[in-house]
Write a structure and sequence with these properties.
It is built from 4 helices and 3 strands; from the N terminus they run H-E-H-H-E-E-H. The chain is mainly α. The protein starts with 6 loop residues before the first helix and ends with a helix.
Length: 84
Protein backbone atom coordinates (compact mmCIF):
# COMPACT_ATOMS: atom_id res chain seq x y z
CA UNK A 1 0.00 0.00 0.00
CA UNK A 2 2.85 2.44 0.70
CA UNK A 3 3.89 2.56 -2.94
CA UNK A 4 0.54 4.22 -3.84
CA UNK A 5 1.03 7.09 -1.38
CA UNK A 6 3.32 9.99 -2.21
CA UNK A 7 5.55 11.55 0.41
CA UNK A 8 3.38 14.69 0.32
CA UNK A 9 0.17 12.71 0.91
CA UNK A 10 1.76 10.75 3.73
CA UNK A 11 2.89 14.01 5.34
CA UNK A 12 -0.70 15.32 5.10
CA UNK A 13 -2.00 12.11 6.72
CA UNK A 14 0.47 12.63 9.56
CA UNK A 15 -0.76 16.22 10.04
CA UNK A 16 -4.36 14.97 10.15
CA UNK A 17 -3.36 12.30 12.70
CA UNK A 18 -1.72 14.93 14.91
CA UNK A 19 -4.85 17.09 14.67
CA UNK A 20 -6.89 14.15 15.96
CA UNK A 21 -4.73 13.92 19.06
CA UNK A 22 -5.06 10.86 21.24
CA UNK A 23 -8.76 11.08 22.04
CA UNK A 24 -11.64 9.66 20.06
CA UNK A 25 -11.75 10.60 16.41
CA UNK A 26 -13.92 13.60 15.75
CA UNK A 27 -14.74 15.36 12.49
CA UNK A 28 -11.96 17.69 11.40
CA UNK A 29 -12.00 20.40 8.72
CA UNK A 30 -9.90 18.35 6.31
CA UNK A 31 -9.87 20.94 3.55
CA UNK A 32 -8.55 23.58 5.96
CA UNK A 33 -5.78 21.23 7.08
CA UNK A 34 -4.92 20.24 3.50
CA UNK A 35 -5.00 23.86 2.32
CA UNK A 36 -2.60 24.90 5.07
CA UNK A 37 -0.29 21.97 4.30
CA UNK A 38 -0.26 22.37 0.49
CA UNK A 39 -0.36 26.17 0.42
CA UNK A 40 -3.33 26.43 -1.94
CA UNK A 41 -7.02 25.64 -1.97
CA UNK A 42 -6.76 23.71 -5.25
CA UNK A 43 -3.78 21.72 -3.97
CA UNK A 44 -5.68 20.95 -0.78
CA UNK A 45 -8.72 19.74 -2.72
CA UNK A 46 -6.58 17.54 -4.94
CA UNK A 47 -4.84 16.02 -1.92
CA UNK A 48 -8.19 15.31 -0.21
CA UNK A 49 -9.47 13.66 -3.39
CA UNK A 50 -6.39 11.41 -3.62
CA UNK A 51 -6.66 10.39 0.03
CA UNK A 52 -10.36 9.62 -0.42
CA UNK A 53 -9.72 7.51 -3.51
CA UNK A 54 -7.04 5.56 -1.65
CA UNK A 55 -9.41 4.98 1.28
CA UNK A 56 -7.12 6.78 3.72
CA UNK A 57 -9.69 9.33 4.94
CA UNK A 58 -13.46 9.33 5.28
CA UNK A 59 -15.90 12.20 4.99
CA UNK A 60 -18.71 12.86 7.41
CA UNK A 61 -22.10 11.94 5.94
CA UNK A 62 -23.72 14.91 4.27
CA UNK A 63 -20.42 16.77 4.01
CA UNK A 64 -20.45 19.68 1.56
CA UNK A 65 -17.13 19.06 -0.16
CA UNK A 66 -17.12 22.58 -1.59
CA UNK A 67 -17.05 24.20 1.86
CA UNK A 68 -16.57 22.32 5.10
CA UNK A 69 -15.24 18.89 4.06
CA UNK A 70 -15.43 17.42 7.55
CA UNK A 71 -13.91 13.99 8.08
CA UNK A 72 -11.24 11.88 9.73
CA UNK A 73 -8.61 9.24 9.08
CA UNK A 74 -9.95 5.88 8.02
CA UNK A 75 -8.68 2.78 9.79
CA UNK A 76 -6.44 2.17 6.78
CA UNK A 77 -5.04 5.72 6.93
CA UNK A 78 -4.48 5.46 10.68
CA UNK A 79 -2.54 2.20 10.23
CA UNK A 80 -0.40 3.73 7.47
CA UNK A 81 0.87 6.51 9.73
CA UNK A 82 1.01 4.39 12.89
CA UNK A 83 -1.94 6.12 14.55
CA UNK A 84 -4.06 3.04 15.21
Amino acid sequence: MREGVSAEDRRLLEVIARAHGHGPRRPLALLDIAWAETGSQDGGREAIQRLLLLGLIELQAGCDTTNDCLGWLSERGARLVGYS
